[in-house]
Specification:
about 270 residues; alpha/beta; 6-stranded mixed sheet; 9 helices; about 25% strand; globular
Length: about 270
C-alpha cells in the first residue's frame, strides 16, 4: 500500500506528541442511549482524535482506515467490519447534462479494465505494491478535463511529499485520460463543497472515492462503478467496542458528509 505524505505524517506526529485534539467540524448530539456523532473535515483528523481519546470510535471507508493503520502501527488502533454495513460502490460523478463526458469516461473505464491497466494500478495500492507508473498519453481530443478530488483520503487521493497529487483515483483518471486522448487537470477540492463545485462548472468531474447513492444521483450522474468498499469501525486496542451495536451511547468520529457519516447517523437515529 502507498503511504501518506511525509508532511501528513509529521502533522499527525506533532498532534500526538502535543496531546492535542483536532476540533470537530460539527457535532450532533443524540440521546444518551443512541450516541454522539462528531464530524471532522477529514479522516486523519478523526483518527487523531480517537488516538487522543476525544472519541470512542471512528467510522470510515475500509480501505482508508486500513491504510492509516498500516502506515501508523504504533498508534494502538485496530479496526473491524460489521455485517450490518452494506457494500458500497465508488463512481466518477459528472453533471447530468454532460452526456458526452459520461460516454467518454465510461468507455475509458471499460478500456483500462480490459487492457489490464486497472489491475496494475489496483495492485500498486492494494496488492503486493508493485510500482506502476501511468504513461502520459497524447491529447488527441484537444480537451482538458478538470477532475476534482479531496486529496486527504489516502490511498485514493492525497498530496505526496513532492506536493503532487497521488493515489489510486488519481492514477485511474490519468489512465482513462491517456487511453481516451484527453488531458487531465487534478484540482484539490474540499469535500464539503465538491458537488457544488461540479454543478457550478469549476470542475468537470469528481473522482474522490465517492460512493454512488440515490441521494447523490438526484444531483449528479455517476460512471459505472469502479471500486467496492464497506464501512469499518476503528477503535483503540482493548476497547470494549466489538460491533456496530456497541456504539450505542458512545462518541463516534466521522468525516462530514461521507457515507460513514450517513451510515452511523441512520443507525443511531434508529436507536432513538
Amino acid at each position: 500500500m502507498k503511504k501518506y505524505s511525509t508532511v501528513l505524517i509529521i502533522i499527525l506526529t506533532i498532534a500526538l506528541l502535543a496531546g492535542c485534539s483536532s476540533k470537530p467540524a460539527d457535532t450532533t448530539n443524540n440521546n444518551n442511549n443512541a450516541g454522539t456523532i462528531q464530524r471532522y473535515g477529514d479522516i486523519p483528523a478523526a483518527l487523531t482524535e480517537l488516538i487522543n481519546g476525544g472519541v470512542d470510535a471512528v467510522v470510515a471507508d475500509s480501505p482508508v482506515v486500513l491504510e492509516f493503520l498500516a502506515n501508523n502501527p504504533s498508534t494502538g488502533l485496530t479496526a473491524f467490519g460489521d455485517e450490518s454495513f452494506e457494500k458500497e460502490f465508488y463512481g466518477i460523478a459528472m453533471r447530468q447534462q454532460d452526456t458526452e463526458i459520461h460516454e467518454l469516461i465510461n468507455e475509458g473505464l471499460e478500456r483500462v479494465i480490459a487492457n489490464g491497466v486497472y489491475d496494475k494500478i489496483f495492485n500498486n495500492y492494494f496488492g503486493d505494491g508493485t510500482e506502476y507508473v501511468v504513461e502520459e498519453g497524447e491529447n488527441t481530443l484537444g480537451i482538458t478535463i478538470k477532475a476534482g478530488a479531496d486529496m486527504a483520503y489516502a490511498p485514493f487521493e492525497y498530496v505526496n511529499d513532492k506536493g503532487q497529487p497521488e493515489g489510486f483515483d488519481m492514477d485511474l483518471i490519468r489512465a482513462i485520460g491517456a487511453e481516451m486522448g484527453f488531458k487531465v487537470e487534478l484540482i484539490n477540492t474540499n469535500w464539503d463543497g465538491i458537488i457544488p463545485s461540479l454543478i457550478a462548472g469549476n470542475i468537470d468531474l469528481i473522482i474522490s472515492a465517492m460512493t454512488i447513492t440515490e441521494k447523490r444521483q438526484e444531483t449528479v450522474t455517476f460512471s459505472n462503478p469502479y471500486f467496492e468498499a464497506t464501512q469499518y469501525i476503528a477503535v483503540k486496542e482493548g476497547s470494549t467496542i466489538k460491533s456496530l451495536e456497541d456504539l450505542k451511547g458512545k462518541k463516534i468520529g466521522v468525516q462530514n458528509g461521507t457515507t460513514g457519516d450517513i451510515a452511523i447517523t441512520n443507525y443511531l437515529e434508529g436507536q432513538k
